[in-house]
Amino acid sequence: MKEMHKREFPLHYARGKKLFHIVVHMSDEPGSMTSVMDGLGKAVNLIGTSSYTLGDGTAMLSSFAESLSPEETVGGLKKSVTGLKAVLDADVRAGEGGLLVDTFHTGISVGGDDYLLLRREGLAGVFDHIVKIFGTGGEVLLYEEGKALGRDNAQKSMELLGEERVMASARYLGRALTAQGWGKVDSDAEPKPEGVDVAVEDCFECSGGTKVRKGCDFMRGFLEGGVQVTRGVEGRVEETSCILRGDAKCVFRIRVS
Question: In this structure, are 180 and 90 located in the same domain?
Fold first, then answer.
């Protein structure tokens, strides 16, 4: 299967198209999803679909869709959807002027924690502004704030998964940063005498090709804070290469004392 590198934000634009956001509450049983998808396919062209279980024998299906008929209405589409056997309830909302926004969901939750989506270049621009104002003090500030967030993130992971699972799956868990848009993260399978290298392609801190900063101080601090919590010892992280310095990718060497 082709590897997907980016997901679209829950906003869709299609000039001249009649768009709907369809959210279905359905029974979480074998065949339910197929039944609902087949039913929807008769009225709309599905653009993007996601689903999640509610843990009570039911599940939710969220779909962005283009109407197959210019005469389709919210009421008519909702009536068709709620008439499907597996459907318990449905919410249908229309887009405006070819623009469709997910107004049903209010954010992202993982393990009980709420997440916030930010534009990568916008956040990198904030980092630039901090360094412009405070100079090298701004670089230290970014490092310290990254370290604090790294400690907090590691602690939450330990509470959610347990220390043993976090330690056993540390390399795999690093891919969560990739899924969240921090960059394509990979690390050495086995530690080397000189330390563990964590490589980050397309690092978010380098977004926009800034000339203000010369390194990823926030990411360096984040990794160091995570090591401090998961290993229980002081670690030191050095950025040995960086996109901002003309390298192909950012590489962070982790040394544990």
Answer: no
